[in-house]
């Protein structure tokens, strides 16, 4: 059984289907911006996952999960502490009014 690398950060956005979240902008502009900003700090891969929209989400739920895979734990700290991070965070308002939640993966 393969394991998720311990040097992974998930960024998720929780809301309802009525909340503003521009998927196209997110995929075509924001994710390439993230890659360009953090690749020099060890970001190896970035991907977005969009859960199926169901009636259950009307009360709120996960709208998107972004997986950011880094070479190692030190690279995560370097990327999030880098000057380029300000531009990445400022871009969030271009596609949503929701606040991102970040979680660092810890293998069980």
Quick tags:
108 residues, alpha+beta, 27% strand
What does this entry look like structurally?
The chain has helices at about 25-40, 75-80, 85-90; strands at about 10-15, 45-50, 60-70, 100-105. By secondary structure, the chain is of the alpha+beta class. It has a domain at about 25-95: Alpha-Beta Plaits. A 4-stranded antiparallel sheet has the order 2-3-1-4. The radius of gyration is 14 Å and the shape is globular. The model has no long low-confidence stretch (mean pLDDT about 90).
What's the short version?
By secondary structure, the chain is an alpha+beta fold. The protein contains 3 helices and 4 strands. It has a 4-stranded antiparallel sheet.
Secondary structure elements and their pairing?
Blueprint: E1 8-15, H1 23-38, E2 43-49, E3 61-70, H2 73-80, H3 85-90, E4 101-104
The strand order across the widest sheet is 2-3-1-4
Low-pLDDT residue spans:
none
Terminal CA distance: 13 Å
Question: What order do the helices and strands follow?
Answer: EHEEHHE
Nearest-integer average pLDDT: 90
The global form is globular
Quickly give the CATH architecture of one domain: 2-Layer Sandwich
Q: How large is the share of residues in beta strands?
A: 25-35%
Please provide the count of β strands. Answer: 4
CATH class of one domain reads Alpha Beta
Rg value: 14 Å
* Helicity level: 25-40%
Instruction: Quote the CATH topology of one domain.
Output: Alpha-Beta Plaits
């Amino acid at each position: 059984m393969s394991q998720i690398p311990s040097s992974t950060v998930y960024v998720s956005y929780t809301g309802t289907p009525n909340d503003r979240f521009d998927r196209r902008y997110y995929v075509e502009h924001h994710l390439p911006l993230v890659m360009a900003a953090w690749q020099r700090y060890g970001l190896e891969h970035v991907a977005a996952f969009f859960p199926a929209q169901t009636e259950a989400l009307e009360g709120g739920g996960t709208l998107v999960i972004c997986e950011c895979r880094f070479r190692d734990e030190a690279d995560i700290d370097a990327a999030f502490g880098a000057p380029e991070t300000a531009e990445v965070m400022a871009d969030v308002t271009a596609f949503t009014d929701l606040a991102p939640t970040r979680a660092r993966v810890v293998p069980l």
